[in-house]
Amino acid sequence: MAGEPQADCLFCKIVSGEVPATVVRETETTVAFRDINPQAPTHVLVIPKVHYPDAATLAAAEPNIAADILREAAEVAATDKVDGSGFRIVFNTGAGAGQTVFHTHAHVLGGRGLEWPPG
Prior knowledge:
Layout: H1 10-16, E1 23-26, E2 30-34, E3 42-48, H2 55-61, H3 63-79, E4 87-90, E5 106-110
Antiparallel strand pairs: 1-2, 2-3, 3-5, 4-5
């Protein structure tokens, strides 16, 4: 069921503490942790504690939590001191866009030049 933890979801397991992660921030609705394969000096994932497969589904079902993710992404950037130089927030939605874990997550990237368009 949408919003409920999924037994086979890596990020649900991180939320529950079953799988360890380097958590940098946590709120009532979100968890932010360092990516295990960073693509920039700052590469943090911000996820909702509720399970939705992608950003579009989360935004339609629980727009307040989608807003919480964006707010926390900005806090991560400030904590890592990349807010002044610039940072990127990326939501990959669907396998064709590069999504590999089907639990909504935002990538917060910064600390190096981020060219456009991305690869």
